[in-house]
């Protein structure tokens, strides 16, 4: 009872396609292992993308947060430095006022003035001493010692700055912040804030200055609660010399980095810059010629970010391991299921092979033929619809009205042929086509098109179920299209042209008794014995008595004449008063069951 043995199933399922035992067309059989593999790959890809996106976004947020904290820190430090310099400047002005109008010998020997200045200096812990130098640069009074020790500041930058301004006739007394120096009296690192002293006549009298203790500012910067161990720097404007740097254990502060210099030069009032290793935030101290700079190294920021992202990376790794385990389990289950499936298929195939081979070969050939026929008609229909659309678009685009009308008519004719092929791939029997369905759809489409262009059109259909051979369905469909379009274009025109154009003669107005508001076209399809009749009539202006359709030069009438001859059909035209009626009589071969000659 078993049929001929078939090759093992394992040989057939090695590729993506296998041939059925009965000889049917190849079919694609999805493999469960492949599906599991693709799902696993998509899962791993999703985890990788999510991990990368979350990591990159969180890294940028960490860096952006550090930049915001650095920006806030320099804002606070700039306000603190502004208050400090304002207080130091007030003390300088106080010393200048107290020493004004006094000879330098009196200033140098006045213990009372020394006590007064020293008392004011003691109120400001960030200041070391007050200094009064005469026009030659000689030190006359200092709160660091009494009497003042010998010191000549004529070569110091701060003295030269004010002396040069006085020589150039600049009346504005500008405060000046000097560079970081080692004091000749105190022997300590310091920098000075100074102002010019002027004679009553405006001449240069000397300078008054105070020394600001960098260690006080370093201590203040050290006490600030800033994350990631920042480097806090106070620099002079212009030269960008470092005045204070915390932390910095060297006697001479490390110069400002190139990144910080470029940032200050690009945005003098303040901003944030970043390179591959550091974040630099800076801000100018109000109207003072100094900048506060906060530099953060990216290394501790990224280390903190890595500690923050580590749990999420662990979760992603755990999810990846779980997905891998599920994939392995799925592959094993799919393999076991495939083995069972192979065994069952082998048993079924062995018992039904003989019967399936015979029936399958026949069904496969029929199915392939039917599929090819339907596919051919479907592609022809699509191509014809494209041609029809192109003709219609071209007709709408050209400027010549007559050429546009011709192109639109050609598009409708091509569409009529496409509709025939649309029915061919929808019907079960490709040898005959239900022409009554085609004629109904054609008339409804033409009626909608006519109404969209204006006019109260109505097509009355009186059709019987009729199937015609597919070999002649195109000609018959074109005949129906031409007759109905002829009636729509010419039957109710109150012009000097008839339904077939200039060759038909001349009428004017509508016939007596014809409705003025309704344009009726009657379309009929019926059997009369062994003859099939298609009738298209109207109640319009009719044809002139001397009209001979056989000699008409109208393309529509020539098509009707040619198609009728191809079908061996009899065409009759008669005036019905009102209107005209076209009748196409076809021989018996157009009825169901007839065979075309």
TrEMBL record:
Main enzyme class: transferase
EC code: 2.7.13.3
Pfam families: HisKA_2
UniProt keywords, alphabetically: ATP-binding, Kinase, Membrane, Nucleotide-binding, Phosphoprotein, Transferase, Transmembrane, Transmembrane helix
InterPro entries, A to Z: HATPase_C_sf, HATPase_dom, Sig_transdc_His_kin_sub2_dim/P
Spans through the membrane: 35-56, 309-331
Keyword Flavoprotein: no
Residue ranges constituting the Histidine kinase/HSP90-like ATPase domain according to the UniProt record: 471-590
Annotated catalysed reactions: ATP + protein L-histidine = ADP + protein N-phospho-L-histidine
One Gene Ontology molecular-function label: protein histidine kinase activity
Keyword Transcription annotated: no
Gene3D superfamilies per UniProt: Histidine kinase-like ATPase, C-terminal domain, PAS domain
Name of the protein described by the UniProt record: histidine kinase
Organism: Azospirillum palustre
Organism classification: Bacteria, Pseudomonadati, Pseudomonadota, Alphaproteobacteria, Rhodospirillales
């Amino acid at each position: 009872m078993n049929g001929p043995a078939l090759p093992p199933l394992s040989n057939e399922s090695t590729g993506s396609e296998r041939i059925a035992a009965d000889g049917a067309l190849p079919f694609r059989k999805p493999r469960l292992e492949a599906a599991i593999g693709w799902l696993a790959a998509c899962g791993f890809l999703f985890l990788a993308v999510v991990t990368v996106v979350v990591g990159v976004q969180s890294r940028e947020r960490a860096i952006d947060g550090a930049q915001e904290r650095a920006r806030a820190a320099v804002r606070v430090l700039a306000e603190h430095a502004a208050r400090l310099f304002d207080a130091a400047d007030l003390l300088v002005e106080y010393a200048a006022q107290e020493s004004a109008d006094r000879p330098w010998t009196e200033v140098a020997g006045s213990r009372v003035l020394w006590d007064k200045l020293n008392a004011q200096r003691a109120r400001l812990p960030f200041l070391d001493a007050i200094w009064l130098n005469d026009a030659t640069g000689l030190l006359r009074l200092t709160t660091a010692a009494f009497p003042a020790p010998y010191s000549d500041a004529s070569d110091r930058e701060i003295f030269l700055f004010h002396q040069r301004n006085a020589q150039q006739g600049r009346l504005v007394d500008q405060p000046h912040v000097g560079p970081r120096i080692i004091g000749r009296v105190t022997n300590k690192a310091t920098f000075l804030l100074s102002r010019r002293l002027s004679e009553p006549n405006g001449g240069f009298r000397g300078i008054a200055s105070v020394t600001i203790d960098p260690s006080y500012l370093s201590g203040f910067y050290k006490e600030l609660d800033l994350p990631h161990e920042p480097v806090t720097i106070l620099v002079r404007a212009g030269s960008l010399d470092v005045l204070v740097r915390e932390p910095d254990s060297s006697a001479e502060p490390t110069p400002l980095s190139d990144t910080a210099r470029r940032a200050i030069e690009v945005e003098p009032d303040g901003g944030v810059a970043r390179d591959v290793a550091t974040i630099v935030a800076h801000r100018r101290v109000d109207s003072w010629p100094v900048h506060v700079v906060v530099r953060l190294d990216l290394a501790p920021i990224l280390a903190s970010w890595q500690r923050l992202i580590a749990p999420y990376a662990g979760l992603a790794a755990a999810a990846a391991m779980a997905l891998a385990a599920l994939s392995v389990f799925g592959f094993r289950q799919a393999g076991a299921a495939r083995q069972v499936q192979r065994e069952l298929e082998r048993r079924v195939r062995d018992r039904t092979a003989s019967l399936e081979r015979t029936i399958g070969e026949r069904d496969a050939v029929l199915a392939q033929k039917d599929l090819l026929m339907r596919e051919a008609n479907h592609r022809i229909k699509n191509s014809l619809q494209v041609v029809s659309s192109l003709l219609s678009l071209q007709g709408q685009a050209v400027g010549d009205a007559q050429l546009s009308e011709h192109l639109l008519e050609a598009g409708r004719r091509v569409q009529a042929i496409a509709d025939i092929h649309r029915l061919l791939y929808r019907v079960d029997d490709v040898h005959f086509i239900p022409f009554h369905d085609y004629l109904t759809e054609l008339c409804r489409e033409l009626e909608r098109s006519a109404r969209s262009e204006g006019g109260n059109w109505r097509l009355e259909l009186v059709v019987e179920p009729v199937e015609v051979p597919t070999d002649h369905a195109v000609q018959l469909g074109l005949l129906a299209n031409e007759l109905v379009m002829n009636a729509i274009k010419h039957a109710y025109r109150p012009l000097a042209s008839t339904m077939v154009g200039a060759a038909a003669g001349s009428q004017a107005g509508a016939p007596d008794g014809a409705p003025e508001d309704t344009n009726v076209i009657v379309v009929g399809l019926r059997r009369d014995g062994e003859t099939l009749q298609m009738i298209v009539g109207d109640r319009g202006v009719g044809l002139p008595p001397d009209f001979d359709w056989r000699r008409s030069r109208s393309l529509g009438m020539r098509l009707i004449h040619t198609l009728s001859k191809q079908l061996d059909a009899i065409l009759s035209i008669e005036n019905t008063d009102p209107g005209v009626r076209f009748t196409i009589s076809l021989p018996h071969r157009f009825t169901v069951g007839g065979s075309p000659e």
